């Protein structure tokens, strides 16, 4: 059985753990967790075709083990200094249910309720206004760009956005762009037609994903489609949530096994290793 670094070389073309996750050696704990989340979504056994499942499972198990090492401050420090990892303490993720339980503990299922809650908190906030002003300035008042750029925005927000920016234009805080406040009817009609098409697409997606919401992916996909989140803005928020962006310290929860029996397995393995060492003296 190949060691983990050799396995990484074989499956990902590199034995550098940071390269496997696509981050730098100086990545924070939250950045590393986000990177693990992104990589794991690409190879999650439940999200690939039957043809790709075998290879995906190997990769999923590997990056889970590697993340366990890098998410442990002491083990990461040893790896950074020596380029080696102590596989004696590697978790046994051959049991699929244990691995899935661990992954779900790290990344709880996202529901439409989670996303809607964020929408309600974001709309009308200082963050939204800041994003609105930035989009308005960078596009010189292009409403389509504003709608595309501001998180959670839709055509239904157009008049609200105008009311928010009007006083800022009058006070000279922002320049006046005629096309924003008096947009040509043709461009407005085109944008609204596109919104109607997206709404229909969202309803279609909802029907296709119905019954698959237990993992949270159906709800997330629907929310992303319906609220233009497919552009990645809200996804960044969710990654922030998953990655504990407010705390860059190593999370001890990341290094806990999801079940007590896993702890017993590790203890048994550790005891066996100690007995072997004593016997060899």
From TrEMBL:
<dbReference type="InterPro" id="IPR001623">
    <property type="entry name" value="DnaJ_domain"/>
</dbReference>
<protein>
    <submittedName>
        <fullName>DNAJC9</fullName>
    </submittedName>
</protein>
<dbReference type="InterPro" id="IPR056453">
    <property type="entry name" value="HTH_DNAJC9"/>
</dbReference>
<dbReference type="GO" id="GO:0031072">
    <property type="term" value="F:heat shock protein binding"/>
</dbReference>
<feature type="compositionally biased region" description="Basic and acidic residues">
    <location>
        <begin position="195"/>
        <end position="211"/>
    </location>
</feature>
<dbReference type="Pfam" id="PF23302">
    <property type="entry name" value="HTH_DNAJC9"/>
</dbReference>
<feature type="domain" description="J">
    <location>
        <begin position="16"/>
        <end position="83"/>
    </location>
</feature>
<dbReference type="GO" id="GO:0005634">
    <property type="term" value="C:nucleus"/>
</dbReference>
<dbReference type="InterPro" id="IPR052594">
    <property type="entry name" value="J_domain-containing_protein"/>
</dbReference>
<dbReference type="InterPro" id="IPR036869">
    <property type="entry name" value="J_dom_sf"/>
</dbReference>
<dbReference type="GO" id="GO:0005737">
    <property type="term" value="C:cytoplasm"/>
</dbReference>
<dbReference type="Pfam" id="PF00226">
    <property type="entry name" value="DnaJ"/>
</dbReference>
<feature type="region of interest" description="Disordered">
    <location>
        <begin position="243"/>
        <end position="281"/>
    </location>
</feature>
<dbReference type="InterPro" id="IPR018253">
    <property type="entry name" value="DnaJ_domain_CS"/>
</dbReference>
<feature type="region of interest" description="Disordered">
    <location>
        <begin position="190"/>
        <end position="218"/>
    </location>
</feature>
<feature type="compositionally biased region" description="Basic residues">
    <location>
        <begin position="272"/>
        <end position="281"/>
    </location>
</feature>
């Amino acid at each position: 059985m190949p060691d983990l670094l050799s396995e990484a070389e074989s499956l990902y073309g590199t034995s550098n753990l940071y390269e496997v996750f696509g981050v730098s050696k100086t990545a924070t704990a939250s950045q590393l967790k986000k990177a693990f989340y992104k990589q794991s979504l690409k190879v999650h056994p439940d999200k690939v075709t039957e043809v790709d499942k075998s290879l995906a499972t190997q990769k999923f198990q590997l990056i889970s083990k590697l993340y366990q090492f890098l998410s442990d401050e002491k083990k990461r420090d040893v790896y950074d200094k020596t380029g080696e990892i102590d596989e004696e303490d590697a978790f046994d993720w051959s049991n699929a249910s244990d691995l899935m339980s661990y992954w779900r503990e790290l990344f709880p299922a996202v529901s439409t309720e989670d996303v809607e809650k964020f929408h309600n908190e974001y709309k009308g906030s200082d963050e939204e206004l800041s994003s609105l002003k930035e989009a308005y300035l960078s596009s010189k008042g292009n409403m389509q760009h504003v709608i595309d750029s501001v998180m959670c925005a839709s055509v239904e927000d157009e008049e609200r956005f105008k009311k928010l920016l009007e006083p800022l234009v009058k006070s000279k805080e922002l320049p006046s762009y005629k096309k924003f406040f008096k947009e040509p009817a043709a461009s407005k009609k085109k944008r609204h037609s596109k919104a109607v098409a997206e709404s229909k697409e969202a309803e279609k997606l909802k029907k296709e994903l119905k019954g698959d919401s237990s993992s949270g992916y159906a709800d997330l996909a629907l929310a992303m489609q319906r609220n233009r989140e497919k552009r990645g803005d809200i996804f960044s928020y969710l990654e922030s949530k998953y990655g504990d962006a407010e705390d860059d310290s190593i999370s001890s929860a990341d290094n806990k096994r999801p079940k007590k029996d896993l702890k017993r397995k590790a203890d048994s393995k550790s005891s066996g290793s100690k007995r072997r060492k004593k016997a060899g003296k």
